[in-house]
Amino acid sequence: QVQLVESGGGLVQAGGSLRLSCAASESIFSFNVVGWYRQAPEKQRELVANIFSRGSTNYADSVKGRFTISRDNAKNTVYLQMNSLKPEDTAVYYCNAAVPRGLYVMDYWGKGTLVTVSS
């Protein structure tokens, strides 16, 4: 069972920055992909960004140019640097990992961290 713990959320003014961290309980080196998702009140959870084991990344159009996902394998941590934050970025941000387990790939989620952007 992989534990994912998010941190770094908080209250920030529009235009500000935050860095989220997702710390895993085991080495992330072999994880297929680690992603950040978010869910705003009364909205569906959506993908914000993800990073694959070889380092390639994807971003939602709404955050391109403002957010950067990165990973530190030595620290078993994935980061989401969020710049130029907007009120519409307000949401609970979740970390997700797809982890190979033999013939299967298991899906793990953290409990989330709240980001609130004031106008």
Describe the structure.
This protein starts with a strand and ends with a strand. Helices cover 0% and strands 56% of the residues. The strands form 2 sheets. Strands 2, 4, 5, 6, 9, 10 and 11 form a 7-stranded mixed β-sheet that branches. The model has no long low-confidence stretch (mean pLDDT 96). It contains no helices and 11 strands.
Describe what is shown at a glance.
This protein is 0% helix and 56% strand. The protein has strands at 4-7, 10-13, 18-24, 33-39, 46-52, 57-59, 67-72, 77-82, 91-101, 104-109, 113-118. Strands 2, 4, 5, 6, 9, 10 and 11 form a 7-stranded mixed β-sheet that branches.
Keywords:
119 residues; mainly beta
Question: Helix count?
Answer: 0
Derived structural class: mainly beta
Along the chain, the helix and strand elements come as EEEEEEEEEEE
Sheet-strand content, in percent, reads over 45%
Query: Gap between N and C termini, in Å?
Result: 39 Å
Shape, principal axes of CA atoms: globular
Q: What percent of the residues sit in helical stretches (DSSP H or I)?
A: under 10%
- Determine Rg (CA atoms, Å): 14 Å
Largest sheet, in brief, is: 7 strands, mixed
What is the average of the pLDDT values?
96
How many strand segments?
Answer: 11
Low-confidence spans: pLDDT under 50, at least 5 residues? Answer: none
